[in-house]
């Protein structure tokens, strides 16, 4: 829903100030700001001259010049005849100017007034506006047809946006209901699950050391731990916790995640390398949440490697962001799956829940950062997490 609101929101510009929607994420904000270019201000002359005067004055100049020439040509006539001819010529000039004004008012001014009125209606949000002079078979008619076509396209676009908005709102309400239901079920399941785990622990202690049921008890414990992990991820997805920002060393957070990941590969021919960022300033982040993100990426990298392999974690500074990359030499992600890996409940692993990467993206975006993945099947995958060194003032607690 947040992405959809970001897609529906528009960038408004007034002079040199650009206002972005509050729900816009950092990646979207950066894309919008790069796409928007300052508009050149139109310089309007301080003196306003009506178009009628601009049209009439060349005609009036021509007529006056003609009158002067006519006056010179009638110097040889008698005064009475000359006066009569001049009166007739002057009346004709005035009549011509009047006819031109009436013609211009009928053919140009009336359509322009109508166009201005309809444009005001469109500006107020009424997209049922249209102009009548679109029926004319001239340039003015072309202008009217183009205007009506533009309004029709705006009307269709608005109808489509409203339909998409209603659809997304319905889906958002549906998912919100499912999320509340899932969170409630997860909470109710965890209570009896804790009881089952306690009983299994007691049964396991009472069994003789030689009992074959010992192995079964161990498997049951692992399954209970897996169910508990799924429920924990589900609760964190349905009821996300806001990050508690602290300025601390990102190298320490990443190194702790690497140390835990190395414990999982003690019996595997997999090497995990860590390259700390030199001279990296303290980064404002929630160390627990970023630790969770990096550990999730590391465990996914380990699971993607069949046989010997390596995982490399690197940290460096790029502009005003601290970047963490997690690369592996595993089997990679097919290109058709790559666009969907951050979707909730989407997984290609048989025992996966599909919540890990979705939760990782939510955490990174809550830090005003970005997470991306690139992969080459058979050669490995690289996840890139970029976090701003300094969070916006409103985000720092």
Description:
It is a single chain. The protein is of the alpha+beta class and 397 residues long. The chain has three domains: 76 residues; 62 residues; 150 residues, Heat Shock Protein 90 (2-Layer Sandwich), CATH 3.30.565. The strands form three sheets. Strands 4-6-7-9-8 form a five-stranded mixed β-sheet. Strands 1-2 form a two-stranded antiparallel ribbon. Strands 3-5 form a two-stranded antiparallel ribbon. The radius of gyration is 38 Å and the shape is elongated. The two termini are 26 Å apart. The N terminus is likely disordered.
Q: Taking strands numbered 1, 2, ... along the chain, how are they ordered across the largest sheet?
A: 4-6-7-9-8
Q: What letter string, H or E per element, gives the SSE order?
A: HEEHHHHHEHEEHEEHEE
Query: And the CATH topology of the largest domain?
Result: Heat Shock Protein 90
Fraction of residues in β-strands:
5-15%
- CATH hierarchy, class of the largest domain: Alpha Beta
- Indicate how many domains the architecture comprises: 3
Number of helices: 9
Oligomerization category of the chains in this entry: single chain
CATH superfamily grouping of the largest domain: Histidine kinase-like ATPase, C-terminal domain
Number of strand segments: 9
Rg over C-alpha atoms, rounded to the nearest angstrom: 38 Å
List unreliable stretches of 5+ residues.
Answer: 1-42
Structural class by helix and strand composition: alpha+beta
How far do the termini sit from each other? Answer: 26 Å
Global morphology? elongated
